Amino acid sequence: MTTASLAVARVPRVSGHVAGTGLVLAGLFAQEFGAALAAGLFPRAGASGVAMLRLVVAAVVLWVVCRPRVRGRSRADWTVIAAFGATLACMNITFYQAIDRIPLGAAAALEVLGPLALSVITARRASSWLWAALALAGVALLGRDGFDRLDPVGVGFALAAGALWACYIVLAARAGSRFPKADGLALAMAVGAVLSLPIGLIDAGTRLLDPVTLALAAAVGILSSALPYTLELLALRRITPATFAVLASLLPALAAAAGFLVLGQHLAPLDLAAITLVITAATGAVRTAPRAPLTHNSPNAVHNGPTIHRSPESTPHPIGSPH
User: Fold this and answer.
1) Looking at the domain assignment, is residue 299 inside a domain?
2) How many C-beta neighbours within 10 Å does residue 214 have?
3) Burial class for 72, CB neighbours closer than 10 Å (0-12, 13-18, 19+)
4) How many CA atoms lie within 13 A of 131 on its CB side?
5) What is the pLDDT along the chain (323 residues), one digit of tens a residue?
6) Long-range contacts, stretch 211-217, CB < 8 angstroms, 24+ apart
7) Residue 217: what pLDDT?
8) Which residues sit opposite 300 in a β-bridge?
9) Hey, which family's this protein in (predicted)?
10) Which of 59, 66, 161, 286 could cysteine-pair with 193, CB 3.0–4.6 Å?
11) Residue 310 located in a structural domain
12) What pLDDT, on a 0 to 100 scale, did the predictor assign at position 206?
C-alpha cells in the first residue's frame, strides 16, 4: 500500500476519533452545566426537590427512547433493577445536597473518589496504590484548613455520593448483563424517580406548582441526562471505552468551570491544584487498568460510570457520570 493510500485510510479513523472526543466533551459540559443550573434552582424547589424533578425528567426521556420490555423478567432481574434504582435516587439526592453546601468543583473532586477507589481495589496492581495516594493527596490539600472550611455536612454528602457512584458502577454492570441496550438503565431510572418522589415532594412542597420552576427543572433533566446520554452513545461508536473514561476524568475540572461561570463560585489556587491531583489520579487509574474483552456477560470495568457491554443485540451503554 502506498503512502498516499495509507494517509487516505487513516483520515476517517482520525476524524472519527476527533469527532468522538468532541461529542464526549460536549456531553460532559452539558452535564456539569446542568448541575450548576440545578444548584441555582435550589432556592426555588430545594436540593431534594430538584433531584426528584431531574430523575423524573430523565426517567421519562429514557423510557420514551428505550421503550424497555417489562414483561417476562425474573425475580433476580427485578432485584437488580430495584437496587439499581434505589442507588440512582440516593446518589442524585446526596450529590445535590452536597453542591447545595460546597462548591461544585470540590464536590465533584470528592465524589470521584468512589469510582477511583473501586478501580484501585479491582485492579489489584501496585501502580493502583500510587494513584490512590495521589488522590488522597488531592483530598488532603482540598481540606488543608479543615473540611469545616467547606462545610463538613456537604463533604459528607459528596463522599456518600461517591460511594453510591461506585455501587452504581457495579449494579450497572449487572444490569447490562441482564438487559439489552440501555433497558436496565431506563427501568432503574423509573424506579429511582418513584423512590425520590416522597423526599422531593416534602422538600419542594407547593413550590413545584410554579411553571418557571418546572421549566427550569426540565432543562436540568435534559442537560444532565438526555443530551449527555445521546452524545455518549454517538461518541462510543467512534472512540474506545478507555479513551472515554480518560476524558470523563476531567469532570471535576469542568464542574469547577461550571461553578465559576454559572454560580460565581471562586476556588483558591490550591483548591484547583487539589482538583488537578484527583483528575491525574483518576486518569492514571484508567490508563493502567487491566483490559478485558467487551462481551455481554464479561464486563470490562471502567472507573467513571457504568460498564460497557456489547453483543450483536446491544448498543453501547453510556459510561459517563450519572448526574
Assistant:
1) no
2) 16
3) exposed
4) 28
5) 544 444 434 445 556 677 877 887 888 888 888 888 888 888 888 999 999 988 998 899 889 888 888 888 889 999 999 999 999 999 999 999 999 998 887 888 888 778 777 777 776 666 767 777 777 777 777 666 555 568 889 999 999 998 998 888 888 878 878 888 778 888 999 999 999 999 999 998 888 888 888 888 888 888 887 788 778 767 767 776 666 666 766 777 777 787 887 777 777 787 778 778 877 876 776 666 655 444 333 333 333 333 333 333 333 344 455 66
6) 212/44, 213/41, 213/44, 213/45, 214/53, 216/37, 216/41, 216/44, 217/41, 217/45, 217/50, 217/53, 217/54, 217/57
7) 84
8) 308
9) Belongs to the EamA transporter family.
10) 59
11) no
12) 83
Could you tell me if residue 9 is inside a domain?
Answer: no
- Number of H helices and number of E strands within the chain? 13, 0
Contact 100, 42 (CB under 8 A): yes
Q: So what's the pLDDT on residue 163?
A: 92
Strand partners, 308: 300
**Distance in angstroms (rounded) separating the CA atoms of residues 84 and 306:** 11
Number of domains present in the structure of the chain? 1
Contacts of 114 (CB under 8 A, 6+ apart): 159, 161, 162, 163, 164, 165, 166
**Measured between alpha carbons, how far is 148 from 151 in angstroms, rounded to an integer?**
5
| Residue 114 to residue 166: CA distance in whole angstroms | 5
| Amino acid at position 237, single letter | R
* 307 within some domain: no
Could you count the other beta carbons within 10 Å of the beta carbon of residue 296?
A: 15
Q: For residue 260, what are the domain limits?
A: 15-287
In the block, which residue shows the cell 490550591? 270
Residues in the chain: 323
| Percentage helix, strand, coil for the chain under 3-state DSSP, each rounded to 5 | 75, 0, 25
Q: Residues 172, 95: contact at Cβ < 8 Å? A: no
Kindly tell me the burial class for residue 206, based on how many C-beta atoms sit within 10 Å of its own C-beta (0-12, 13-18, 19 or more).
Answer: exposed
Owner of C-alpha cell 446518589: 91
CA distance 287 to 157: 28
DSSP 8-state class, residue 122: H
